[in-house]
């Protein structure tokens, strides 16, 4: 995760440096300049269920915003930690029950329709089409002894609605709800991974922070 954070910060710093910084107005974010295409990148974390157990997903995504009306791109998501479940079925031994530990990760392409956009408020509808793998380890119920593992390919679709609020020029929050549906025909996989999702985003507008700090530094140098 630390490598993803480092990459994200470096990427945004490069983008900021590529912009024109000759002038800076602290209220410029209230009067955005229209751009047909705009690069986007950020963390996209969510909470959900796996095998009826609550878990959190870490995510990072990047893409392009088009005409301020929509976004397209790709992302990568993974469970923050292993998900433990008791008395689970395993297709290899269908007559027995096992305890399990699961790690799930997937890639996705996304499209996001921006239904409403104001200076501070935004309502959007993200949708993801993804594929990934679930690594499951199974343990004997009575002795907690490791008995085997299995890697399962999973394809999925996620539909959600998101409301974002920009509290100031460099910070905002977002909350959203949706649903993850498994496209595999395997009924056991569907029962285990079909689940609602909730999202809480902290949005840092790094370009505004960069411009603000740079402006103050340049102003001190001129004195």
Detail the topology: elements first, then pairings:
Elements (H helix, E strand, L loop, with lengths): L1 H17 L18 E7 L2 E5 L2 E14 L3 E10 L3 E7 L7 E21 L3 E20 L5 E23 L2 E12 L4 H7 L1 E10 L1 H17 L1
Average pLDDT figure: 82
Low-confidence runs of at least 5 consecutive residues: 2-22
State the name of the first-level CATH class: Mainly Beta
- Strand order across the biggest sheet? 2-3-4-6-7-8-9-10
Helix/strand class: alpha+beta
Radius of gyration: 22 Å
The largest sheet, given as strand count, sense and whether it forms a barrel, is: 8 strands, antiparallel, barrel
Number of strands: 10
What letter string, H or E per element, gives the SSE order? HEEEEEEEEEHEH
Q: Helix count, per DSSP? A: 3
What would the principal axes of the Cα set say about the shape? elongated
The CATH topology: Porin
What descriptive keywords fit this protein?
223 residues; alpha+beta; Porin; eight-stranded antiparallel beta barrel; 3 helices; 10 strands; 18% helix; 58% strand; elongated; disordered N terminus
């Amino acid at each position: 995760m630390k490598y993803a954070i480092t990459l994200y910060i470096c990427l945004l710093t490069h983008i900021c440096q590529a912009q024109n910084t000759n002038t800076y107005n602290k209220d410029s974010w209230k009067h955005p300049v229209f751009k047909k295409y705009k690069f986007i990148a950020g963390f996209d974390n969510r909470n959900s269920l796996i095998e009826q157990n609550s878990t959190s997903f870490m995510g990072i995504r990047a893409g392009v915003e088009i005409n301020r009306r929509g976004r397209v791109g790709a992302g990568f998501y993974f469970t923050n930690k292993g998900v433990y479940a008791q008395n689970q079925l395993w297709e290899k031994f269908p007559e027995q029950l096992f305890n399990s530990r699961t790690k799930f990760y997937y890639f996705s392409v996304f499209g996001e329709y921006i239904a409403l956009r104001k200076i501070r408020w935004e309502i959007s509808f993200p949708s993801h089409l993804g594929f990934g793998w679930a690594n499951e380890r199974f343990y004997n119920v009575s002795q907690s002894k490791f008995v085997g593992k299995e890697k399962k390919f999973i394809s999925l679709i996620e539909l959600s609605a998101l409301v974002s609020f920009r509290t100031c020029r460099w910070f905002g929050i977002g909350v959203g709800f949706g649903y993850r549906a498994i496209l595999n025909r395997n009924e056991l996989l569907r029962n285990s991974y079909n689940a609602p999702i909730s999202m809480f985003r902290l949005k840092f507008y790094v370009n505004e922070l960069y411009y603000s700090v740079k402006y103050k530094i340049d102003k001190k140098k001129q004195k």
